[in-house]
Amino acid sequence: MSAAVFAFCDGDEQARALAGNLGIAAHGIERRAFPDGESLVRIPPVPAVAETALLFRSLNDPNVKIVEILFAAAALRASGARRVMLVAPYLGYMRQDVAFHPGEAISQRVIGELIAEHFDGLVTVDPHLHRIAALDQVVPAIPVVAVSAAPALAAALARDMEPGTLLIGPDRESAPWVERIAARLNLDMIVAEKCRRGDRDVVLRLPEAARVDGRVAVIIDDIVSSGSTLIACATLLRASGAGRVEAAATHCLAGPADLERLYAAGVARLCTSDSVPGPVATIPLATVIGNAIRELGWLESIR
Ligand code: R5P
């Protein structure tokens, strides 16, 4: 078996944790931007050729990163890798899965086909698939696995969960995560109705039968992007009498200003997986991703 993890500096810690879990080496990929914005990517000399290269990079802020992983995949093949697998804990561009308006590209499909063309396999975590049932419809013809962070989120929440805590899904799309976590922790759950009127303009309604008064409420979602969904949900829960409002999600893309807005709206605590490194990304995914890679047999020798 000769396999190694290769990572850019933005995911170095998570990539090393994954390599440690798999018992293989981790190597850093050098990158730099030229003054005109073009990228240079360099695979450093490694002690032994890795016939299986696991290229680790989360595709948040995706535009430059996507170009750079294509360069890295080509460089890895040129350095002797016989298969290059993409490990992208966060897979960007999955939300535009239809043309919402005439003239729009279905970016999910374009990115999925690009990945299928340049990689021999893909592992990701909780991709944002709304109207598409499975990831292999998006990334065709290569082995693809979408692991869920829900068990890891549940385990993290279980550490200091107050009895009687209520879990809230802010919209229909969050229901699978809320259901899984509520079942694991044996908690009550409700799912709100959401209407998005703009990027940062979200209106929510709780189910009429919801009893939140005085209870600890934990909002569960797959992605925190601008934070507007959590802000609207926390505001509503506070107005409905919730005692304390917390939140947990798989991915956090929100920057410092959006996190501040979210805390100001009454979210006492937010914890997310480390799919996108950041101040709230406290739940490591190395074990779930490592298990998926082992199950796929990617560490076995190529015949
Ligand atoms: C929507 O379908 C997702 O589940 C999230 O609720 C949404 O993407 C969060 O975005 P934002 O933080 O910008 O409201």
Can you tell me the CATH architecture of the largest domain?
Answer: 3-Layer(aba) Sandwich
The low-confidence parts are none
> How does the helix and strand content classify structurally?
alpha/beta
| Percentage beta strand | 25-35%
Average pLDDT taken over every residue: 95
Order of adjacent strands in the largest pleated sheet: 2-1-5-6-7-8
CATH class term of the largest domain: Alpha Beta
**Main sheet overview:** 6 strands, parallel
Output the radius of gyration: 20 Å
Helical run tally? 8
Number of domains: 2
Order of helices and strands: EHEEEEHEHEEHEHEEEEHEHEEH
* Small molecules bound in the structure, each named once: ribose-5-phosphate
Proportion of residues in helical segments: 25-40%
Number of strands: 16
Distance between the termini: 11 Å
Can you lay out the helices and strands and say which pair or pack?
Blueprint: E1 3-7, H1 12-22, E2 25-28, E3 30-33, E4 39-42, E5 52-56, H2 62-78, E6 83-88, H3 107-118, E7 121-125, E8 144-147, H4 150-158, E9 166-169, H5 175-185, E10 188-191, E11 193-198, E12 201-205, E13 216-224, H6 228-239, E14 244-252, H7 256-264, E15 267-273, E16 281-283, H8 286-296
Parallel strand pairs: 1-2, 1-5, 5-6, 6-7, 7-8, 9-10, 9-13, 13-14, 14-15, 15-16
Antiparallel strand pairs: 3-4, 11-12
Helix pairs in contact: 1-8, 4-5, 6-7
The structure holds ribose-5-phosphate (R5P).
Q: In a nutshell, what does this entry contain?
A:
This protein is an alpha/beta fold and 303 residues long. It has helices at residues 12-22, 62-78, 107-118, 150-158, 175-185, 228-239, 256-264, 286-296, and strands at 3-7, 25-28, 30-33, 39-42, 52-56, 83-88, 121-125, 144-147, 166-169, 188-191, 193-198, 201-205, 216-224, 244-252, 267-273, 281-283.
